[in-house]
Design brief:
- There is one protein chain.
- The protein is mostly helical and about 60 residues long.
- The protein is built from 2 helices and no strands.
- The protein has one domain.
- Helices cover about 85% and strands about 0% of the residues.
Length: about 60
């Protein structure tokens, strides 16, 4: 597994948590929720790329068309 991608996902999670906490403590809970959803969307896009590679590799290994 690619270790740098794991660190990128963890970094996005930490950054999203900090931004969300700062916004929530300043009274902007709507923006905090939006930041959390945006962080989740970014991580999901990263995971979709990994899953695409996985399915391509499985198709190649089992010679499926």
């Amino acid at each position: 597994m690619q270790l740098d991608l794991l660190f990128q996902i963890a970094g996005v999670g930490i950054l999203t948590t900090v931004i969300s906490a700062v916004l929530a403590s300043s009274g902007r809970s709507e923006l905090a929720n939006l930041a959390a959803v945006a962080g989740l969307a970014i991580v999901l896009l990263m995971v979709v790329g990994i899953l695409s590679d996985l399915f391509t590799n499985v198709r190649t290994i089992f010679q499926l068309y």
